[in-house]
Amino acid sequence: MRLWRVEEAERLVKSELARELAEAWARCGDEQCLADTPFEPELVGVGRWWLGPFTIGNRKMGEIPFFSLPPVSTCPGHTPFCLKWCYAIYEIANWRAHVREAAAYLLSLRYDFPDVAARYLSRLPHPVVRLHVSGDFYDRGYLEKWAEAARRLPHKTFYTYTKSLRLIRGADIPKNLIIHLSADPFNYAEAAEVWRELRRGFITFVYTPGRDEELQALQHLLENTEATILLFLNHVQHAPRARVDIAQLRRWLRERLGPAASRVVLDPEEFAGGPQCLHCRLCWIYRQPFK
Ligand code: SF4
């Protein structure tokens, strides 16, 4: 199957539009400067729902600013599971969001990216920032740039989920940059190994209705780590649409995983329809116990 969204993202990264947008973001840092550029507000990111490269909120998160990159090409740890189910590949956003991701990637290549990111974020009142609704840490230098931005903004909390497991090993990550490990049926053994090294954050896993056999990986994660496993629900448009009986799923987990099943948390927004991340806060409030 052709991954047209991935091909389009690669093409956009090379476009003049993305290059000029990234240059405008690097030059600006406030609303007035952005409004004075020749770009339309929704593209350059000025108004209620954006500030430059940051988009403010989505349906799942509520009003939390996020920074996204093109899918797959910025995800060195992507697996066959991602290519089949990643919502960033299959969910149709609008063309502006795709150009903004391409420009965000070009912006992130700059040596002064931590300054630029901190400049925009210091103008936003939101205390929590999400990295990578789409995309991931694509190399160590880029990870270090976010670590630097987080150090400069100690009053803000940054959180993300990553499959770039090799990149985060041994990295100097400040406490206000919370990185959860994203495991799937292809990378769960490595995820367990990396978690044992880092001993911080959740391990996340995606449940696809009707594919209960994939949950066997949870047994390995529970037996080989002390991590809390955050279970997401596969909600990409071509995922099986079976109604999930939460009580039955919990029973199934208890029967197969025993008492360790108490360390599996079902994502409240995805399994029960709410609350949104902004009110749930689970993914960043447990920062203290992360050693
Ligand atoms: S556990 Fe809560 S904060 Fe984390 S992704 Fe789910 S709804 Fe958002």
**β-strand amount:** 15-25%
Poorly predicted residue ranges: none
- Helical fraction equals 40-55%
Overall number of domains: 1
Using DSSP, what is the number of strands?
Answer: 10
Q: Which radius of gyration do the C-alpha atoms yield?
A: 19 Å
CATH class: Alpha Beta
What bound compounds does this protein have? iron/sulfur cluster
Mean pLDDT: 93
Question: Which class do the helix and strand fractions yield?
Answer: alpha/beta
CATH topology name: TIM Barrel
Shape: globular
Care to describe what's here?
The protein has helices at residues 4-13, 16-27, 31-35, 41-44, 80-85, 87-90, 95-108, 113-121, 140-152, 165-168, 188-198, 216-224, 246-257, 268-272, 277-280, 282-285, and strands at residues 46-47, 50-51, 54-58, 62-67, 128-131, 157-162, 177-182, 203-207, 229-233, 264-266. It has 291 residues and is α/β, with parallel strands linked by helices. The mean pLDDT is 93. It is 43% helix and 15% strand. The chain starts with a helix and ends in a 6-residue tail after the last helix. 41% of the residues are buried. The chain has one domain (4-285): Alpha-Beta Barrel (TIM Barrel). It binds iron/sulfur cluster.
